[in-house]
Specification:
The chain is about 75% helix and about 5% strand. By secondary structure, the protein is mainly α.
Length: about 220
């Protein structure tokens, strides 16, 4: 299973919005914040941060702890008699507002739990992506071509990662080469299985990558 970048960012932003909403609610009802709400906020923020860093197991545990202890400050409020204070009237505003973030956090944790088993793979993908970003185009191109030579197929996702090209552009490039009878093969899922001569394919692919890079660089230069 692979989490798309847009989907991953959507989860991070949604989770962060829930925490900010929860913080606003706590500020409205100060007794809740003082009697333990601030601890939940810290736990939720830590959960968001660890999720962003691909530590899904730790993020899940932190978020679950904050969700479980959500009601603890309410018990302390009644224990210390805050419900007799006029400020306790704010509870009628706080509870309906804060319960939204609480329910939202539960839904998010249910979604997050699905990714716990694939955490190592996702972290590895993220680390590879970070390393690739630090490579120059020539190094990335040679690395990809080497993988194609060994595997005898072109992985579209890896090509997208190593070259910064969209899958649409990569497929278009392959269709152009096929139309010029410079390669033969078949698409299977996100892979293009090569059935023609691998050396001819690599030569044409390398020239196409170089031309694409030159056009992209020229385009960016004109925009500036």
């Amino acid at each position: 299973m692979r989490i798309l970048k847009k989907q991953f960012k959507h989860y991070v932003i949604t989770y962060l919005i829930l925490i900010v909403w929860y913080l606003i609610c706590c500020v409205i009802f100060i007794p809740y914040l003082i009697l333990g709400g601030f601890i939940n906020i810290i736990l939720y923020i830590a959960s968001v941060y660890t999720f962003y860093k691909y530590y899904f197991t730790l993020s899940f545990k932190l978020g679950l702890s904050a969700t479980i202890f959500y009601f603890l400050p309410f018990g302390l409020i009644f224990l210390f008699g805050f419900y007799f204070s006029p400020i306790a009237a704010m509870y009628l505003i706080f509870f309906p507002m804060s319960i939204i973030s609480w329910v939202g956090a539960i839904i998010f944790l249910v979604i997050l739990k699905k990714y716990l088993e694939i955490e190592p793979n996702l972290k590895e993908e993220h680390e590879i992506e970070m390393k690739v970003r630090n490579m120059d185009f020539e190094t990335r191109k040679n690395r990809l071509l080497g993988m194609v030579r060994i595997d005898k197929f072109l992985d579209l996702e890896k090509a997208q990662l190593f070259l910064g090209m969209s899958k649409y552009d990569i497929k278009a490039l392959i269709y152009d080469l096929a139309g010029e009878k410079k390669l033969e093969g078949d698409f299977k899922d996100n892979r293009f299985i090569i059935t023609s001569n691998i050396d001819d394919f690599l030569l044409e692919l390398e020239l196409s990558f170089i031309n694409w890079q030159e056009k992209t660089t020229l385009s960016h230069t004109k925009v500036r």
